[in-house]
Design brief:
alpha/beta, about 450 residues, Nucleotidyltransferase, domain 5
């Protein structure tokens, strides 16, 4: 056969056996395994290894899907052939087995095997051959039934959502205000950087406002989860990924919830969590239960704060910078030269707590900051019980958070806190402890603490 006739035969064969491309890099089971591992809180690299693909492929899957599973994680029904069954078919056919013999070996109907061989054959080699990987790819491609996204099918609803999410803000006279010009870079905004100014309604606010604005129009309804999916999962023809910059978090990728659960510090054990704190600390009936935290300033400067839960009495911890701070050469694995490392905070708390009577040294509640890594030694030195809040739960130290807000009058954000000495901190603490408080019946924290001490002494 001449070269011209050979090319004509190849073109004719391609016309009869059209191929939509090549099989994907991984099967459906691999992608499901990848997303299940992500949902368990593992990194993208770990999930890629579990799925049997490279780290680069796993990262591309995660980013293209916005951090959300792009396929259903439900197992395939036994009604359909699995990949292992397709491998058995390929092996038996390569050995010369007929359709009925293959069907008996798999416990399937002969018509199922015949249809499988006819519909899912490989066509890229210009011959009708059966390969398990190609057959699985054909079956998955044919089984996909992508639905039209709600926002893509309803223009009015999409305009409403987009305007509440990313609409321009305006002055009271309705003149638009553009705000700073921010270029979308496909990732979360950096710290201390401008963000896009927009209406920035949350998806939950949008979803719950629709019934109020359109009470008689059932087509103007959408769930907040659908809005999130339209933002993070692209290819639906609804909302652009750039609009994630208008969300409160500004995340360009959705963070699996299990990852945040695993962010607790290794030194925090279940028996010292806030749930184990005695009930007397919760109801504020007995003084001696403290809450603590750090307020940070310019150049990693810090001041420690201790607040007594019952009386709101405040003590401030002086945390001076250590020698060598700011120098380029540092000792590897050495102490935190900014002054609020674990050892420095431990010593500062112990020095302040030990000045108190024993009945005022019952417990201390702190967040899960690394500055409390020496809590075990602090407990030995002072005899005070130490408990830790749940991650991302500042309201569990409500008295301390409120006091830190009051302290910002004296120690504003963005200022160097290391310039304030112990005498200045004592003066600020005295000012707060001499201030009448509504929650104390307009008594001062110093008066409330003194009354408790007198009462306990008389008893």
């Amino acid at each position: 056969m001449g070269a011209g006739k050979r090319q004509q035969a190849i073109r004719a064969m391609r016309g009869q056996m059209w191929s939509p491309g090549r099989p994907s890099v991984a099967r459906r089971e691999d992608r499901q395994r990848f997303w299940r591992t992500i949902a368990a809180g593992h990194s993208t690299e770990g999930a890629a290894a579990a799925a049997g693909v490279s780290a680069a492929v796993g990262a591309r899957w995660f980013r293209d899907s916005g951090g959300m599973p792009s396929i259903s994680l439900r197992s395939t029904s036994g009604r359909y052939l699995s990949f292992s069954e397709r491998e058995e078919i390929a092996l038996l056919r390569a050995g010369g087995a007929g359709v009925r013999e293959v069907a008996r070996g798999l416990g399937r109907s002969p018509s199922t095997i015949s249809r499988e061989l006819r519909r899912n054959a490989s066509t890229r080699s210009h011959s009708v051959a059966y390969r398990a990987t190609t057959a699985q790819w054909h079956a998955e491609r044919r089984a996909s039934r992508p639905k039209v996204a709600t926002l893509a099918a309803n223009d009015a609803l999409r305009r409403y959502v987009q305007d509440r999410l990313a609409g321009a803000i305006a002055r009271p006279d309705s003149a638009p205000v553009t705000g700073p010009e921010v270029r979308w870079i496909g990732r979360r905004h950096g710290r201390r950087k401008d963000r896009r100014w927009a209406s920035s309604w949350s998806p939950e606010q949008i979803a719950n406002r629709l019934p109020l604005d359109f009470p008689d129009d059932p087509s103007m309804r959408i769930s907040h989860e659908t809005i999130y999916q339209s933002l993070y999962v692209q290819g639906r023809g609804a909302l652009r990924r750039e609009l994630t910059a208008c969300l409160r978090t500004g995340r360009a990728l959705r963070m699996p919830r299990a990852r945040t659960r695993g962010r607790g510090k290794g030194f925090v054990r279940p028996e010292i969590m806030i749930s184990e704190r005695p009930a007397e600390a919760e109801d504020r009936a007995v003084p001696g239960h403290w809450e603590g935290d750090l307020i940070l300033g310019l150049g990693s400067s810090a001041i420690g704060t201790l607040v007594e839960r019952t009386t709101r009495y405040v003590m401030l911890l002086h945390l001076p910078r250590m020698s060598g701070h700011g120098e380029q050469v540092r000792v590897k694995n050495g102490p935190a030269l900014a002054g609020h490392g674990a050892e420095a905070v431990r010593d500062a708390i112990a020095a302040s707590i030990l000045t108190l009577p024993e009945q005022l040294r019952r417990s201390l509640t702190w967040d899960q900051g690394a500055e409390m890594a020496e809590h075990a030694q602090l407990r030995i030195d002072t005899g005070i019980e130490i408990y830790f809040c749940d991650p991302h739960s500042p309201w569990q130290r409500g008295s301390n958070e409120n006091t830190n807000g009051l302290l910002r009058q004296y120690f504003p954000r963005g200022t160097d806190l290391s310039r304030h000495g112990p005498d200045e901190l004592a003066a600020v603490a005295l000012a707060l402890n001499s201030r009448p408080r509504k929650t104390l019946g307009w008594h001062t924290p110093a008066e409330a603490l003194n009354d408790h001490l007198l009462t306990s002494t008389a008893a």
